Amino acid sequence: MKNDVRTVDERSTGGTSERSGAKGGARRPDPLPISQWPLFASAFLLPPRFTPPRVKNDRRYRNLDKYRFVFWFLSIPLVLYAIFVISPFFQAFYYSLTDWTGFSSDFSFVGLDNYSRLMDDPTFWQSMRNSLFLLVVAPLATLAMGLFFAFMLQAGGRGKKNEAVSGVTGAKFYKIVYFFPQVISVAIIGVVWAAMFDPITGPLNEVLRVAGLDSLTQNWLADPNIALWCVLFVLCWMFVGFYVVLFSAAMGAIPKEIYEAALLDGARRPTTFFRVTLPLIRDTVHTGWIYMGIQALDAFAIVHIMTINKGGPGDSTLVTPVYLYKKAFDSGEAGYATAIGVLLLLVTMAFSVVMMLFSRRERIEY
Q1: SS3 sequence, 67-113?
Q2: 319: left (phi > 0), else alpha (psi -120 to 50), else beta?
Q3: Quick check: 348 and 152 in contact, CB under 8 A?
Q4: Of 8, 50, 81, 161, which is the most exposed, with the fewest CB atoms less than 10 Å away?
């Protein structure tokens, strides 16, 4: 009797599976034998009109054919990116292990000698200290000013009827004025500000003299104590307009109802900024901080054009990219210069990773 029951159960189970298989549609295609992989791969890579009929009529090929466009759409830019962006990094690391001069095809492998030399190079460490100073202070000052001006443009106007917040009159014009340095060549900016800081004919000292503040006149770019601060000022001036526009757009996306609720709770503008606006645009601020930090580490053009002897006086304004340039083109030590570049790349990557880790949090939706 038990055997009969088991037989009935097996039949019913088999019937159910057959029916479910019929309902489920066609059977999955058999796995592709390894011997046919080259044929299918070549058919996948070639245009459809060159595909052999035997492969084209195979259901397994039709499943792969759906991804042909995606593959070609992504492969070309990825190959170009690998050739022009990724491969130079490996090439630079290779040359950093040699004594290549940059002007000759003859060089020899020296291993990690360039890196050990960096550890004992006081000029390199001075340039790195200056770069790290700009990395810390430039984003802090630039983003703080950008946030302040953006909030004033978005919420600094007199309150209008039935509006929780309102921007200042002519906000669009001010954004254009702030953004104007972004459309000027960095070479022109360096030349203009070098003339501004000129101790004899520069407008800055001239204004101080006219105002009767002769004691405040300085030899701005020749004083080791303030030359780097002049570079910092120009960097902030260059980029603050970009962040005003960026943060204004982020603040403009915040719903007015949130500000209205804060207003009903009695929040004043400073409280609204720190408790409402800043948390809601935190992701934008983090992105801006990373971008500005990279710009600060790459402060080559301004230092090269504006300062005395490309990093002077002494080494007070020397930053790592300028030191790399001097070693590669003035001293003919391209191998050593690429070692400097590799370390600068590692510092930049470490900075970006740390900033991205700090920015990880639950996304606020509004």
Answers
A1: CHHHHHHHHHHHHHHHHHHHHHHHHHHHHCCECCCCCCCCCCECCCH
A2: beta
A3: no
A4: 161
pLDDT one-digit tens code per residue, 253-265: 888 888 778 878 7
Assigned domain for 49 exists: no
Tokens of 55: 């492969």
Which tops the pLDDT comparison, 266 or 284?
284
- β-sheet bridge partners, residue 312: 308
CB atoms within 10 A of CB 34: 7
Residue that has been written with the tokens 């000759």 in this structure:
104
Count of the separate structural domains present in the chain: 1
Tokens coding 194: 């070098």
The token pair that represents 205 in the structure block: 């000292």
pLDDT of residue 62: 58
CB-CB contact of 64 with 44 (8 Å): yes
Assess if residue 65 is contained within a domain.
Answer: no
> 237 pLDDT exceeds 60?
yes
Domain assignment present for residue 288? The answer is: yes
The alpha carbon torsion through 51, 52, 54, 56 (nearest 10 deg) reads 10
Model's pTM, two decimal places? Answer: 0.77
DSSP state of 26: S
Assess whether the previous peptide bond of 31 is cis (omega < 30° from 0): no
Does residue 218 lie in a domain region? yes
Which phi and psi (to 5°) does residue 168 adopt? -75, 155
Burial of 19-30, coded b for 16+ CB within 10 Å and e otherwise, reads eeeeeeeeeeee
The predicted-structure confidence for 73-114, as pLDDT tens digits, reads as follows 788 889 999 999 899 889 999 999 999 988 888 889 998 999
Assign residue 219 the CATH number of its domain: 1.10.3720.10
Q: Which domain holds residue 185?
A: 116-358
Tokens 């740390």 map to which residue?
Answer: 354
- Here the tokens at position 355 are 């900033």
